[in-house]
What we know:
two-stranded parallel sheet; Rossmann fold; globular; alpha/beta; single chain; 9 helices
Amino acid sequence: MSERAAAPVVVVTGANGFVGSHVCAALVERGAQVRAVVRRAATTPDLPGVEEVVGEFSDPDVARRVVEGAAAVVTTVHPMGSDRETQQRIGVENTTTIARAAAEAGVDRFVHVSTASVYDRSAGAGDVDEASALAPDDGDDYSVTKRDTDAALASVDGTTRVLVRPPAILGPGETSIWNTLRPADLRDDETQRRDVPDRTFAWVHVVDLASFLADVAVGLVAAHDDPEAGPVAGGCTPVNLAAAPATQRDYYGTVCAALGVDPVWDDGPAWTGRIVSDRAHGWSWRPTVDRDRAFTEIAAGLRG
């Protein structure tokens, strides 16, 4: 049997997206074969060992077909910015469909890109770890539907589920929210430049996020009875992923200086806590992109 044939097969949904494309690259670096699930043909990263599968993973038949024989699934799809009904359908219901298919097929690991927005990060909430209170029902559509996706996945027994919860995901790219899309809003609309300067800006770089997702998917992070040391076998384990502390002053200041506009600072209550990533550190994750590099990358991209 060839080395490639013996490699683990990992399914990636949204493989042509900002996070998904980086996950594909990280998996290939680790010797995995990737089944890249996309909606449009010829959009998959052109990498050795990546097989494009065009289809809707919301279709139970497609979901069963793509997970057959796979060692892991990594899900990255959520229509942030859509109405709640769309986010409920695609984020909660469709992700649960492929999770059930994976469990029925005996897939060992199901790794879901959740978000730190599932937590209550209102003023005074303090530091946030995996046991912290979740977003309330009257929260924004994204927070509530991502929270509900996590809850739905927790109910799908039969596979080891890992809920990876990053905050703002930095990194260059046309579809990058924080390096490209959000700066465009700040450039074009002064009302978008308003915030409390000391409000926490929690972040992680897409390279470090993808590296962690790939390590968990291919089993480089071993299962453990203690969730502080690794994903619980057969369980559903949330894990936060955040890099060095920063504030809105850091982010808005970087973006606005690069664009030649001024931020508008407000007074008022704001969340100033941390996204605690001690659990991820216990799983041997360490970010490689520091704050200076990440913010310099934003400014360079905007000036360029």
